[in-house]
Design brief:
This protein has two domains: 10-75, Orthogonal Bundle (434 Repressor (Amino-terminal Domain)); 84-270, 2-Layer Sandwich (Endonuclease, Chain A). The protein has twelve helices and six strands. The chain has helices at residues 10-24, 29-36, 40-48, 55-65, 70-75, 84-93, 114-124, 130-141, 161-165, 171-186, 235-251, 255-270; strands spanning 98-103, 154-160, 190-195, 209-213, 220-225, 228-232. It has a six-stranded mixed β-sheet, with helices on both faces.
């Protein structure tokens, strides 16, 4: 009996093809690394879909495997606008039928307004140019289109109260962000719950978490920290993540109570109350 897997990302398909071509050429990862002038560990990352080669490396791969520019040309379609640690998760996000989000300190990217995203990027990139900031905001907020698709996923959003209280971008920006999420919840587009401060310790307080389910593939989990992220599809690990989410959700306010809290917080931000 075969074990269901989550959908393969385009990067993983690229890596699998690289592995097949390397084996067919009778080369080990070490031997291919010598020809490409990189470490065998990097070849392993390429084949697993964790990283993509640079154009020069892809060109040398084609020369080593005699693939007539195949991997260099394919690379052009795979270059992501997202950070390497998030690129694979971003691809899977588009295929998911159910997405369960938990946010610890900031609003999930797929729900961010332009003003909120801009304030975050301004904080992350103190030496930005206006053009860089504009591009980053467009890339981030374009993910909201996921909520407008005809085959749109079911989305659950669980927010630590810290997300609601921290004033990002100033009172007006924060109020607009909270009202935008509340509007989505009232329209039935997302299911919204807040974990209040009064709960104290809870099962997800160490990290943000995204759980993704698919129509005919195994689920996946994604966690992220500063400049790093981890996409998991091991059934045991994903199961632990799902249990932690369920435990946290059981401590959260009802949707009605959560909506009331979020709307009240939006008014408080508008009036300059922290």
């Amino acid at each position: 009996m075969s074990v269901a897997r989550r959908p393969r990302t385009p990067r993983e398909k690229y890596g699998e093809e690289l592995r097949l071509r390397r084996v067919a050429a009778g080369l080990t990862q070490e031997q291919l690394g010598e020809l490409v002038v990189c470490s065998p560990t990097l070849i392993s990352h390429y084949e697993a879909g964790r990283r993509l080669p640079k154009p020069d490396d892809a060109r040398r791969i084609d020369l080593a495997l005699k693939t007539d520019g195949f991997f260099e040309r394919w690379l052009e379609d795979l270059e992501s606008k997202y950070a390497d640690h998030f690129a694979a998760a971003a691809e899977l996000e588009k295929q998911a039928t159910l997405i369960r989000l938990f946010a610890l300190t900031l609003m999930p990217g797929v729900l961010q307004t332009d003003g909120y995203a801009r304030a975050l990027f301004r904080a992350y990139q103190p030496n930005h140019t206006t053009e860089e900031l504009d591009e980053a905001v467009v890339i981030r907020t374009k993910r909201r289109q996921l909520l407008d698709r005809s085959a749109r996923p079911v989305v659950w959003t669980l927010l630590d109260e810290a997300v609601v209280r921290r004033c990002v971008g100033g009172p007006q920006v924060m109020s607009e962000q909270l009202n935008a999420v509340a509007d989505l919840a009232e329209a039935g587009r997302v299911r919204l719950h807040v974990l209040p401060y009064g709960v104290g310790a809870h099962s997800l307080m160490e990290s943000l978490l995204t759980l993704m389910s698919f129509a005919d593939s195994a689920p996946a989990a994604y966690v992220e920290g500063f400049m790093t992220g981890n996409l998991m599809d091991d059934p045991a690990l994903v199961g632990h993540c799902e249990t932690a989410y369920a435990l946290a959700l059981s401590d959260a306010l009802s949707q009605q109570e959560s909506l009331a809290l979020v709307r009240a917080a939006a008014k408080e931000h508008t009036h300059g109350q922290q």
